[in-house]
Structures are given as structure tokens and as C-alpha cells.
Amino acid sequence: MYIYCCFLTNLWSFPFPSFFTTTMSSQYIKMLTTLKTQEMNWLVICFLILGFMPFGSIAIRPVLDSARLLGFTEAPDYRNGVGCPEQAETTSYFCDPSLVHVAMTLDSEYLRGSMAAVHSVLRHASCPEHVFFHFMAAEFDPKANPRVLTRLVRSIFPSLNFKVYVFREDTVINLISASIRQALENPLNYARNYLGDILDPCVNRVIYLDSDVILVDDVHKLWNVQISGSRVIGAPEYCHANFSKYFTDSFWSDPVLSLVFGSRNPCYFNTGVMVMDLEKWREGNYRLKIENWMKLQRKRRIYELGSLPPFLLVFGGNVEPIDHKWNQHGLGGDNVKGSCRSLHPGPVSLLHWSGKGKPWVRLDEKKPCPLDYLWEPYDLYQPIRKVVFV
Prior knowledge:
Layout: H1 2-13, H2 22-33, H3 37-51, H4 66-69, E1 100-106, H5 111-124, E2 131-138, H6 146-156, E3 161-167, H7 195-198, E4 205-209, E5 213-215, H8 219-223, E6 233-235, E7 237-238, H9 249-253, E8 268-269, E9 273-277, H10 278-284, H11 286-299, H12 308-315, E10 320-321, E11 350-352, H13 359-364, H14 372-375
Parallel strand pairs: 1-2, 1-4, 2-3, 6-10
Antiparallel strand pairs: 4-9, 5-11, 6-9, 7-8
Helix pairs in contact: 1-3, 11-12
Transmembrane segments: 40-60
Subcellular location: Endomembrane system
GO molecular function: glycosyltransferase activity
């Protein structure tokens, strides 16, 4: 009885594979609609039976397409253009020196944004097959563990070069202090601090991207930014911003802490888009330097935001400046209201919805900001309509 129900319900609900043509799909539907009345009655009964089964009891059911089950459609297959380098012969594919390495976090809450970001990178890359994505996923995501996320990404991007790494939240959980917005306290926000430890030693350079960005330019251009001298990271700087507001009065009034920047002239930069020299990062043990500031923050309240201030303290005034077009940030509004924002003057290569407002949320709520429509073409989320029996 149970096996029969599993077979019948899977026959009815199995999503169309990506290779189905319109003709094949129509034949599939036609076949289902020829079910006799008695078989349809059994189908309804089986849905009721399986609907009340505990999750663990359906383990013998065939594995369905995870992307379609979660509402994602398969992305187009992007291939290299003319003049792209050939793959080097190495023991590990991601050690190929011709690759562009991109690191991002991956979790159930921001999954839709992450997939749109990946889609935008591939669509505009001159050599998409030479982009390797490093995804860091929480060990205990209540909705999607790293194994599920790996299958999901592979379903959406069958030819994507990527690896999902398990980020142990207990690595940083005891260092995180309260922030002005709860989302900023997510341990995954701090995963960028550990890229030097997580990624293979042969990866000595990486672009870090937040999940709420869209690229409208070739990622290879950003990759080719040279990080000079002793600098470890590169990012667009905003020296007109009020740098002092990122730290508390307690910080600035302390005679020792206030001198931490010394002769450096620090400017604000957003950590959602960075080019990182991991070789220098590892040699300088910058992960430990950031952790030391986080430990001090636990003892004394020296800043209000989450993972940004420690980066400002360690790297402020010693950042390789990158053209502002690579981080048109703040499109999500502030950290409280998330109101609409307009673009900064000048050219645009990357749009960044930093702040509380996220384009997929506002679009779903039918309350989009004008710039959210620029994000929409990269969205791969298409919810499956529920079957309604009349």
C-alpha cells in the first residue's frame, strides 16, 4: 500500500526535467489526465496518507529535483568566449592559476539572493567556465544543511565550478556581540574572517561577495585589480563618509584606542565586496587580529555594527582603492527602515542591496523600489503552484 502510494504520488508530482521539450511535457500531462476515476480516488487517498507521514518515513521515495522542489529553475548554461585560457593540469581543479575565485556564504534565508548573484557573475563573465565559487554554509542550518545546498546549487547550475565548505558556527559564536540589527549577528557574516583557513592553501587570492549583490560587468576586471605593497585587501573606499560614527564615544574617548590608526588616514569601506590577498592574509595572521578586536568588543562596547568595524580597525587607511563602480552599495536602505535609495553618481559594475531592504522581499511584497527591478532579471526563483483538487 505504502509503496504503491509512493509510486503514484511521485508519478503525479514529479517536476518536469530541464530537458523536457514542450511536446514531451504535454504528453506527460496527457498521460496523467487519462487516469481512471478509481485511480484518481486512490491518488487523493495517497496524498492524504503521505501528507500525515513523519518526514523520516518517506526516505524510500525517489530523490526529486531539489531545485524545483524549492522553487528554483535551472540557469542557462554559460560557456567561455573566444580567447579564454585552457584548463591547467593540476591535482586539484581549483588550484588552476587561470581561475577566478569567488567566495560567498550560502544559507536558506539568503539563498535566493546568492543564486541571483551567481547568475549575474556567470552571465557577464567573459570566461564563465574559469570562475570557481567557494560557498561557506552553516553546519546546522535548520532549513538546509550543506549537503542539501550542494545538491541544490548543482541542480540550478549543472556545469558550475564550485565547492561547499562547512562553516562551524562555534568557531565564532562566542566572539559575536549584539548588533543594531539581528541579521548582522548571524555567524555566517563572520565567515569571511576565516577564508584563509577554510580555502585550500593553493588559493592565494579571492573575491568576496555578499549575497545581496548583482554584477553587471565582467568579474575578470575586478579580479585583475592589483593589490600593491603591504596592502592585504582591496575595496572601494568612501572617504567623504563620517568615519567616526562607526565607533562609540567610549572608543574615541579612550586615549589608547583612539590612537589605533596612528598615522593612517582611515576611510569607510564596505566589506561586502573585497579582493583579498590570502597569501598576505595568512602570513600576517589577520584572522587573529580581527578576533582580538571582537574579544575587546565583548568586554567594552566600542562599536554598534556587526562584522564591519573589526575590518575597519585592522585595515582602515591601508586598503587598495578600487573604483566605486564595483560597489554601488546602500540600495537596501539603512539598517532600520530599509527605505528606497538611488544610485550614486557615476558608472555601475556592481549593485549592492546592503541595508535592511532586500529586493526579493520587496518584490514579493509588491512594494519594490525602482532599483529592485534591476535585480529581478537575475532571479531564478519560480515558486511551484500547488495542485488544487476540485
